[in-house]
Design a protein that fits this description.
Layout (H helix, E strand, L loop, with lengths): L9 E3 L11 E5 L2 E5 L5 E2 L1 E7 L6 E7 L17 E9 L2 E8 L4 E7 L10 E2 L9 E4 L5 E5 L3 E6 L4 E8 L11 E8 L2 E8 L7 E7 L7 E2 L6 E2 L8 E10 L5 E8 L14 E10 L2 E4 L5 E3 L14 E2 L11 E3 L7 E2 L7 E4 L11 E6 L5 E8 L3 E10 L2 E8 L2 E8 L2 E9 L5 E9 L10 E8 L5 E8 L5 H4 L6 E20 L4
Antiparallel strand pairs: 1-24, 2-3, 3-5, 4-26, 5-6, 7-8, 8-9, 9-10, 11-12, 12-13, 13-14, 15-16, 16-17, 17-18, 17-19, 20-21, 21-22, 22-23, 25-38, 26-29, 27-28, 28-38, 29-38, 30-35, 30-38, 31-32, 31-38, 32-33, 33-34, 35-36, 36-37
The chain binds (Z)-L-Arabinonhydroximo-1,4-lactone.
(Z)-L-Arabinonhydroximo-1,4-lactone binds next to strand 7, strand 15 and strand 20.
C-alpha cells in the first residue's frame, strides 16, 4: 500500500491510505476490525480486517442496501455518513453512526463485520454527531456524542433513558470537541476526544474519571497528540480510537493528512488512517510518534492480499472498493448486462450534477495511474478524478472524439479535445507529484490522455492538482478516481489502477 519501498524492518503509515477518515477500531481475539466515514458515497462505511494492526484488507461496506443508507439526490457532498464507532459486545458487532443528510443517528448490528449488517435502529433521542457506544459492568449502554454530551441508551430499541448530560468539553475555548470514545481501562473510565477542528489545529485529548459519566479529570499533558506547528509531513492528527493488542500493548488509530507543495500546502487524498503506539505512564496515555514508517511489531505479520491492479468486471458483484454517488441502482450500473463489462447509464449530464452516475475508487497513492477501456458507441462517458460536484477533472469519450473537462468552483471548461478512431478507446490519468520548489508550487499534476493502440500514452492535458485538494474544495472527503456516464449508455471493459514510484 506504500508509495515508496520501505526500509527493511519498517512498515508504511498511513496503514489505510487514501480517503479513510474517522477510523474506529475493535479487536476480537486475534482479529481487528476498523470502519471509516463515507459521506455521500454508496455503499457506505468501508469495513477493514487485520490480523496484525498494520496490514488491512477491505472486507465489505457496512451499509450496502438502500434500506440502510438513504442519501437523497439533494444531499450535499461531504454530507451523509459521518464518524462511525465500531464495538463488539455480547457476541455482536455494534456500529453507531450519523447520517447528517436526514436520518440522524443510527445503530446497526452484525455477527460478522463483513456483513450482512442489520437494518438501522433509529436514535431520535441522540442529538449530535460522532456517536460512541460503551457498556458498563452492569450492562448499561452509554452513548456519547460531540460536544461532549452523553445519554444512556437501550441499544435494541434505540430508546434513550434520561436526559443528555454534558460531561467534558476538552480545553477551555478549544474549537470542536468531537469524536468522543469512552473506555474502561484499569481502574478508570477514560473519555478521549478530538479538539481544535479537523484542520491543522487538530488534536487528541483525554480525561479520566471513576464512572462512565465522570466526573472527568483532564490529563495534565493534554493534548496527548497534535502535530500543529510541527514540521512533520503528517498533519491534522486527530479523531482517534484506542485498541489493545493480544500482547497487552496499546495502539491508537487516528486520522491525519499528508499536505504537499508550497504554502498553504495541499492534501489531495483526504484524511487517511494512521497507526501510532501508545504507552501508559501514571495512568495516562503517551502517544506516538506518528511517523511515515512504523517499526515492525513483536508479532508475526499477515500481509494483506493485494487488490489486483486490474478489475475486469467479470464478477456479478462489484468489489467493495467501488463507490458511487448517493445510490447505485442496478438499472444504472451493472456488470450483468454485457458479460465482462461494467455498464453505466447516464442520468445527470455531467459530474457537476448530484445524480451523476459514477463508479470510482479512492486514490490511495500520491503517485499513481489509472486506465480504462470504454466503449462509448451508445453514449458518452469517461474517466474522472473527483473531489465533489464542483471540483473534478475528466477525460470523456464520445464515438470518435475525446475531450478533457475541468470543473473548478463555478467554472467549467473544455480544456482539450482530439479525434480518435471510432469504437472503444483507452482513457488514462496519471497523478504526478511535484517536487516542492517555490511557495506557490502545487501538490501534483493530474495528467489526462489516451492510450494509443501501440500502448503509448498521448497527453491531452496536465492540470494543477491543487484544485482537487481539500484546501480548494473544502469538505471532508478526498479524491476518488472512476468511471462515469454523461449521456446514454457506456460500457467499460476494465479498470487498471497502480501506484507509481514516488519521484
Ligand atoms: C467528523 C468529526 C471530524 O464527524 O470530521 O475530524 C467530521 N473529525 O469528528 C467528519 O469526518
Amino acid at each position: 500500500m506504500s508509495d515508496q519501498p520501505q526500509p527493511a524492518g519498517l512498515l508504511p503509515n498511513p496503514v489505510i491510505p487514501g480517503f479513510h477518515p474517522d477510523p474506529s477500531v475493535c479487536r476480537v481475539g486475534d482479529d481487528y476490525y476498523l470502519v471509516c466515514s463515507s459521506f455521500e458515497y454508496f455503499p457506505g462505511i468501508p469495513v477493514f480486517h487485520s490480523r496484525d494492526l498494520f496490514n488491512w484488507t477491505q472486507i465489505g461496506n457496512a451499509l450496502d442496501r438502500p434500506s440502510q443508507l438513504r442519501l437523497p439526490r439533494e444531499s450535499p457532498s461531504s454530507g451523509g455518513i459521518y464518524a462511525p464507532t465500531l464495538r463488539h459486545h455480547d457476541g455482536r458487532f455494534w456500529l453507531i453512526v450519523t447520517n447528517v443528510s436526514g436520518d440522524g443517528n443510527l445503530l446497526f448490528t452484525a455477527t460478522d463485520p463483513a456483513g450482512p449488517w442489520s437494518d438501522p435502529v433509529r436514535l431520535p433521542g441522540v442529538h449530535g454527531i460522532d456517536p460512541d457506544l460503551a457498556w458498563d459492568e452492569d450492562g448499561t449502554c452509554w452513548c456519547t456524542v460531540a460536544g461532549v454530551s452523553q445519554v444512556r441508551l437501550d441499544p435494541t430499541t434505540g430508546e434513550t433513558l434520561g436526559e443528555p448530560q454534558r460531561i467534558w468539553s476538552g480545553a477551555p475555548g478549544a474549537m470542536a470537541p468531537e469524536a468522543p470514545h469512552l473506555y474502561r481501562i484499569g481502574e478508570y473510565w477514560y473519555l478521549m476526544i478530538a479538539e481544535g477542528g479537523t484542520e491543522r489545529g487538530h488534536a487528541v485529548s483525554i480525561a479520566r474519571g471513576p464512572s462512565p459519566s465522570g466526573p472527568f479529570e483532564p490529563c495534565p499533558a493534554n493534548p496527548v497528540l497534535t502535530h500543529r506547528g510541527t514540521d512533520s509531513p503528517i498533519q491534522n492528527t486527530g479523531h482517534a480510537d484506542l485498541v489493545q493488542a493480544p500482547d497487552g500493548s496499546w495502539w491508537m488509530v487516528l486520522l491525519a493528512v499528508r499536505p504537499r507543495g508550497g504554502t498553504p500546502a495541499w492534501y489531495v487524498l483526504g484524511r487517511e488512517t494512521f497507526l501510532a503506539p501508545v504507552e501508559w505512564v501514571d495512568g495516562w496515555p503517551v502517544v506516538g510518534p506518528v511517523t511515515p514508517e512504523l517499526p515492525t511489531p513483536a508479532w508475526p505479520l499477515h500481509p494483506a492480499p493485494a487488490v489486483p491492479a486490474r478489475d475486469d468486471f467479470d464478477q456479478a458483484e462489484l468489489h467493495p472498493q467501488w463507490i458511487s454517488l448517493r445510490e447505485r441502482p442496478e438499472h444504472l450500473c451493472t456488470t450483468k448486462e454485457r458479460s465482462g463489462w461494467l455498464t453505466l447509464r447516464a442520468v445527470g449530464s455531467s459530474l457537476d450534477e448530484n445524480d451523476a452516475v459514477f463508479v470510482g475508487r479512492r486514490q490511495e497513492h500520491l503517485a499513481c495511474r489509472a486506465r480504462t477501456l470504454i466503449d462509448p458507441a451508445e453514449g458518452c462517458g469517461g474517466l474522472a478524478v473527483r473531489m465533489d460536484e464542483d471540483h473534478h477533472y475528466e477525460i470523456e469519450a464520445a464515438d470518435g472524439e475525446v475531450k478533457v473537462f475541468a470543473r473548478i468552483g463555478s467554472i467549467r471548461t473544455e480544456v482539450a479535445s482530439r479525434p480518435v478512431a471510432a469504437g472503444a478507446v483507452v482513457l488514462g490519468v496519471d497523478i504526478v507529484p511535484r517536487p516542492t520548489r517555490g511557495p506557490r508550487t502545487g501538490p501534483d499534476d493530474v495528467v489526462l490522455g489516451v492510450e494509443e493502440p501501440d500502448g503509448t500514452f498521448t497527453v491531452l492535458a496536465s492540470l494543477d492538482g491543487r484544485y482537487l485538494s481539500t484546501e480548494a474544495a473544502g469538505g471532508f472527503t478526498g479524491r476518488v478516481i472512476g468511471m462515469y456516464a454523461a449521456e446514454g449508455t457506456v460500457h467499460f471493459d476494465r479498470f487498471d489502477y497502480e501506484p507509481l514510484p514516488f519521484p
